[in-house]
Each structure stands twice: as C-alpha cells, then as structure tokens.
C-alpha cells in the first residue's frame, strides 16, 4: 500500500509540466479511436458547457500546492459495450468545479475491484473522442480484474471547457486526474475498492503522472508511466512545438516569459523541483528506440526522484519505440505484477 491517503479535498502540489502542452503524438494508440460494439444507441453530439475559467492566481507549483482539490459526483451513464469480462460505461464526474467525462470498464463478478485511473497521451482535442488513447491497456486491465476509469481531460469530448488551459501549461489535466481519484472514493460504489487506487499514464499522460504524484502525494497507492515526456516544460516546447512554429509558444512566453527572462517561473513548473514530495511508488517503462520522447528524459527524471528518496523503478526495452509493439504485453505483465504488489 502507499502512504496514508487523504479522504477529503486534496491540497495539491504541482503545476502540470509542459509535458502536457508539448503535443507529444505517440502513434497509433494515441491517434486512432478505439472501436467497440455499443450496447445502446449512439450518444447525441455533446453539448459543451459555458467556458469555465482556470483558477485565479499565479501559474506555478506553489500555487497548486496551496489549492484545495475536489472530486465528486461520479455518474455511470449509458452502456457503451458488454464483453464476457466487463461492462463499459460512459461516465462523468466533477473536478474542481468542472464536469469531466470519461469511460469506465467495470469487471463482471463480485467486487469490490481495485481501481485504476488512466491518463492518456496527447491527441488533438478537435479530433479526440471519449475514451480514446489507451484501448489496449483499458481492455487488458479490466479483464485482469481492475475497475478502470479513463479520463477525457477538460476541453476533450464531453468535458467542460477551460479557455485558459493551454496558455497556462495545461495545468488542468493534473487537476482532472486528482479529481478522478477523489470522485471514485466519494462515489462509494460497491464495485470499487476505494482503499486501492492506482494511476497509469503514457507519453503526455506520463507527465501528468509525474505532476500528480507531486501535486497530491499519497492519493494513489502506486503509479506507472509509459514513455513519459520531459519533466522540464521548456524542453517539451523546444522539442515538440517550436520546430513547427506553434503560435501557442508565443502566447505562453508572452504570459509567463522565456526561460532566460523568467527562470524562476520555469523552475517552479517542473515537478523535479519538488521531487522530494513524491511518496507513492512509481514504475516507468521506456523503449531505447523512442524518438518521440527520448529515453534520456526519463533517465534524468529517475535520477532526480532517486536523489530525493522516492521509490522509483525504471524498466527499459531494447528496440521498442514510443508506442511499444512486440514487448507491449511483456511490459503490461510487469505493470500488473507491480499493481498487484502495491494495490492488493
């Protein structure tokens, strides 16, 4: 089990690194929607809520440290699919005042089942569909006896809009993941073991994992990250956005300054600055042939977490690229043994 977990609102600790702003486009599992056979008629096009502004105050890790995070109102909506192993539901919940949508797979049989929250990689919100990003993981983990909640993030699918999210380094994604765990606990559903909750993210979602562990230490029992982005926001900008002349770069730097003109801001939005706050065990998988998110980024993060005394483990896979191919199932077997050890 992880450290003692908060039962009520969480005072967070970390701004989302630009891992989430970077636009890390991992490959098939992050660009192609999962196709399932629905057990009900298709949902009508979602109606977006009125824009809800990002929280007032400075954009920084210290600002999120002081924020009281809330999550509640988990609602299981229509059935999207039924398999021999689980039922797939459309869901919504509240996170810090915003409604966030997602998809949840609940195993068949007697619960309560340990729960996992999934944080997907970058997919353009204009083409994103609910539950998109990690279909392999979502299916396998549910078949293995986990209740799995895949978070859509704000500005995605049926989630509420946050118009300031991009220029504010997409801090909101971390809040959405924290809210998911709190909503799972608050729901008190008999199928879900609220004393056993883990977190899994890949690519950009791996950056969300880093920040969540710093924002809300002890909220999860364990976390796993696949091929995460850099823990330095400016490095993600330089790698993913600046080469394509993304206009968002100018907006971010106009709002917050450049690393040269405002180094303190950029120091305060890296989770590595606050690595000593991590209390939850963390497993990271990374392929040696990953040209989207270089392995050196993960090695640097692991070194920083280890120096700070965190329980972190790195598994590397020779020849594997960003999305994992031949050794994906091997890596997932390691992941499930890891969760088995820490959640059961």
Automatic annotation (TrEMBL):
This is Alpha/beta fold hydrolase. Residues 27-51 have a biased composition (Low complexity). InterPro entries: AB_hydrolase_fold (IPR029058), FrsA_esterase (IPR050261), Peptidase_S9_cat (IPR001375). It comes from the Bacteria. The keyword Signal applies. The lineage of its organism: Bacteria, Bacillati, Actinomycetota, Actinomycetes, Kitasatosporales. Residues 139-327 form the Peptidase S9 prolyl oligopeptidase catalytic domain. GO terms for molecular function: hydrolase activity. Keywords: Hydrolase, Signal. Residues 27-61 are annotated as: Disordered. Pfam families: Peptidase_S9 (PF00326). Residues 1-27 form the signal peptide. It comes from Streptomyces thermocarboxydovorans. Belongs to the AB hydrolase superfamily.
């Amino acid at each position: 089990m992880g450290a003692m977990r908060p039962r009520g609102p969480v005072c967070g600790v970390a701004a989302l690194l630009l891992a989430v702003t970077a636009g890390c486009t991992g490959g098939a599992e992050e660009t192609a929607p999962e196709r399932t056979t629905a057990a009900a008629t298709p949902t009508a096009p979602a109606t977006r809520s009125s824009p809800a502004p990002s929280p007032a105050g400075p954009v920084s890790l210290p600002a999120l440290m002081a924020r009281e995070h809330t999550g509640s109102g988990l609602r299981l909506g229509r059935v999207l699919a039924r398999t021999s192993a689980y039922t797939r539901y459309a869901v919504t919940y509240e996170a810090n005042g915003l409604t966030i949508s997602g998809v949840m797979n609940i195993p068949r049989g007697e619960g309560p089942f340990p729960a996992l929250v999934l944080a997907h990689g970058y997919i353009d919100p204009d083409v994103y569909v609910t539950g998109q990003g990690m279909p392999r993981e979502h299916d396998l983990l549910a078949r293995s006896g986990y209740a799995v909640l895949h978070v859509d993030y704000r500005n995605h699918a049926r989630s509420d809009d946050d118009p300031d999210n991009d220029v504010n380094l997409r801090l909101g994604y971390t809040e959405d993941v924290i809210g998911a765990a709190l909503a799972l606990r608050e729901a008190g559903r008999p199928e879900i073991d609220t004393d056993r909750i883990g977190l899994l993210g890949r690519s950009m979602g791996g950056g969300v994992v880093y920040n969540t562990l710093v924002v809300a230490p002890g909220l999860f029992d364990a976390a796993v990250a696949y091929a995460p982005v850099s823990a330095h926001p400016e490095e993600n900008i330089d790698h993913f956005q600046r080469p394509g002349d993304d206009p968002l770069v100018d907006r971010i730097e106009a709002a917050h300054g450049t690393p040269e003109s405002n180094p303190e801001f950029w120091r305060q939005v890296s989770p590595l600055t606050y690595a000593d706050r991590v209390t939850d065990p963390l497993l990271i998988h990374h392929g040696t042939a990953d040209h989207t998110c270089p392995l050196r980024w993960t090695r640097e993060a692991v070194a920083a977490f280890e120096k700070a005394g965190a329980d972190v483990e790195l598994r590397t896979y020779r020849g594997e690229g960003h999305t994992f191919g031949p050794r994906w199932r091997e890596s997932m077997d390691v992941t499930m043994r890891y969760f088995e050890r820490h959640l059961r």
